[in-house]
Amino acid sequence: MVPMNLHLGAVVSPTAEQGFRWLERGALLVDGEGSIAAVGDAEPLIQAYPTANVIDHGSGLLLPGFVDAHVHFPQYLMAGSHGESLLTWLERYTFPAEIECADQAYAEALAGQFLDELARQGTTAAFIFGVSYQGAMEALVSELNRRQLAAVTGNVWMDRNGPAELLKTPADSAAISHHLIGLMGPDLRLGLLPRFVPSCSEEAMARCAEILAQHPEALLQSHLAETLAEQTWVAELHPEAADYTAGYESFGMLGSRSSFAHGVHLGDREWSALAASRSSLVHCPTANLFLGSGLFDLRRAREAGVSVGLGTDVGAGTSLCMLESLKACYQVQRLQGASISVEDLLSLATLGSAGVLGMADRIGSLEPGKRADFILLQPPEGSWLAQRWSRCDRLEEQVFAAIILGSAQDIAGTWIRGRRVSP
Ligand SMILES: [Zn+2]
């Protein structure tokens, strides 16, 4: 029998009952299958499991691994391309970067680099927007299987308004999506990914919705109401539609398995339609700030009853680090006169995003029965954050300071299914 590992440190995690756990001297018991067997105060667990292998992380904080609810793998190496608004930025930087993934050797190397970086940043699960090419997606799925990452991914659907090299007919996109389902291991779910309304003909939307209905394990993700110029374009393309959201709704694409990145510019009817259908939104604050798209209204989402996760949206996002996204999230709410608690912030980046992946039963919090996907937050000795922490009286202060001042260097370790994957 594989011995159990007992990780000691402060334990910080949301809980399924919408509560929050703050344990000054806590412990996380991980079984041989890579699941959490117990969480609690350190001493009682040390007594109860005398044969467990004790790993003492000292004053470090153990948190659930971050869940990035919206990130584009083919755009990993074009992030930080100089400022343009969304539509010109797509043409100038994004589409050429995605076309590079037609080169199989490039795509294979990129998949490895991208997933190594996620691990380094403490991200243990993600909803990954792919690219339209089958070969590149096979490479990504194969790497995800090997690393046992909990993830949703798929090929991007796009049959109009883009460079010919990226366009696929609805039949071709459907064939690739079906093919990918067959390659996915138990930790993966297929994402059906129409890029956004302007990229997909009615035939493509209808075919995509059909596959969503046929496969209860599949999820749908797209972009919605990111910028005003995009909204105007959608209205020109679909003068018959009530609004942008109707462009998905009319194909039966709203529902509890559907999520939409951004939702910065939504009307009253759209908020109601998203809430009534139990669709989720993914807030991507660093991308919204970078492209100057607008300020997401988190209070409005809460009032409307729409679930929200947090995404980096790299390449428009400016960091794969979820601490950076949390900082930007806090700042975006402050610019609208709102505040957000440390608990709310951490929940967004963990359990909230896990809900977007349809995996809140398996990931997103440190609780018995869940996957042992966790990180050790501990700034290097002598760093600014370490000095700041020396003046903190409470765990809550330490976590908030890490969100505002922290970076990847403060993620001292990342574990997936109980196995250390970084550094
Ligand atoms: Zn995006």
What does this structure look like?
The protein is of the alpha/beta class. Helix content is 38%, strand content 23%. It is built from 15 helices and 16 strands. Strands 5, 6, 7, 8, 9, 10, 11, 12 and 13 form a 9-stranded parallel sheet that branches. A 7-stranded mixed sheet has the order 3-2-1-4-14-15-16. Strand 1 and strand 2 form a beta hairpin. The longest helix is centred in the first third of the chain and has 17 residues, at 104-120. It is globular, with a radius of gyration of 21 Å. Zinc ion is lined by residues 70, 72, 129, 223, 261, 313.
Q: What are its keywords?
A:
16 strands; single chain; Urease, subunit C, domain 1; nine-stranded parallel β-sheet; 15 helices; TIM Barrel; 423 residues; binds zinc ion; seven-stranded mixed β-sheet; alpha/beta; 2 domains
Look at the helices and sheets and give the structural class. alpha/beta
CATH superfamily of the largest domain: Metal-dependent hydrolases
Look at the structure and give the mean pLDDT.
96
Would you state the CATH class of the largest domain? Alpha Beta
Short synopsis of the structure:
By secondary structure, the protein is an alpha/beta fold.
Itemize the secondary structure elements and their pairings.
Elements: E1 5-14, E2 20-30, E3 36-41, H1 42-48, E4 53-64, E5 66-72, H2 86-99, H3 104-120, E6 123-129, H4 134-147, E7 150-154, E8 156-157, H5 170-183, E9 188-194, H6 202-214, E10 219-224, H7 228-237, H8 246-249, E11 258-262, H9 268-277, E12 280-283, H10 285-291, H11 298-304, E13 308-310, H12 322-334, H13 342-356, E14 374-377, H14 384-389, H15 395-405, E15 411-416, E16 419-422
Parallel strand pairs: 1-4, 5-6, 6-7, 7-9, 8-9, 9-10, 10-11, 11-12, 12-13
Antiparallel strand pairs: 1-2, 2-3, 4-14, 14-15, 15-16
